[in-house]
Amino acid sequence: HIENNPISKPAIPETQIMCHYPTPTLASLEKNGLDVNWYESLYSTTAISERTEIISNRDIYAAITKDGCIGPMTKVSIQLNALGPPIGEANQAFCLDETAPTIASLDISGLSVTWYDAQDGGNLLSSNTILKNNVTYYSSDYDAATGCSSSRWGITVTIKEGSAVIAPDFSQEF
């Protein structure tokens, strides 16, 4: 008795758009709840790990495996939305005066810049956070149109503690 139970082609999105940062893996791809294996090409017979990082636009193939047999493959085109980090000088100096410099004092360009106290993870900083000498602050850009964030760009701050110039009093009384 032979059963005719063919393996179906995976019904998953054939174009998948993802953010470049943080670096996605094959596990990040939409599989519609299916248990699929990923392959480098249509003719590959060796599955690749779901931990494989996606570092550029590429095509990959998904198939369902049953009883050691690989079913028909679905080609998936992966497109990465890349957003560069904010642009600014890596070292910025400020003079300490009556008003202490804050995150808002940093000179940087981007779409929607946010600030953190660490290269990865860390705490979100508000624009009125007072800057400290020899501390690196990390900026990330965000694109609302794609929902993607950039990698972080560090800016190291130098606070110059010069003395204030006091104008002499030349008025004399006799």
Short description:
The protein is an all-beta fold and 174 residues long. Helices cover 0% and strands 31% of the residues.
The quaternary structure here is single chain
The count of helical stretches stands at: 0
Q: What is the H/E order?
A: EEEEEEEEEEEEE
The radius of gyration is 27 Å
Strand residues, percent: 25-35%
Calculate the mean pLDDT score and round it: 91
Percent of residues in helices comes to: under 10%
The stretches of 5 or more residues where confidence is low (pLDDT under 50) are: 163-170
Strand order of the largest sheet: 7-13-10-8-9
| Shape designation | rod-shaped
Largest sheet: 5 strands, mixed
How many strands in all?
13
Please state the structural category: mainly beta
C-alpha end-to-end distance: 125 Å
Task: Walk me through this protein's architecture.
The protein is mainly beta and 174 residues long. The chain contains no helices and 13 strands. The strands form four sheets. A five-stranded mixed β-sheet has the order 7-13-10-8-9, with no helix packed on it. Strands 1-6-3-2 form a four-stranded mixed β-sheet, with no helix packed on it. A hairpin with a 2-residue loop joins strand 4 and strand 5 (69-70). It is rod-shaped, with a radius of gyration of 27 Å. The protein starts with 14 loop residues before the first strand and ends in a 14-residue tail after the last strand. 16% of the residues are buried. The model is unreliable at 163-170 (pLDDT under 50).
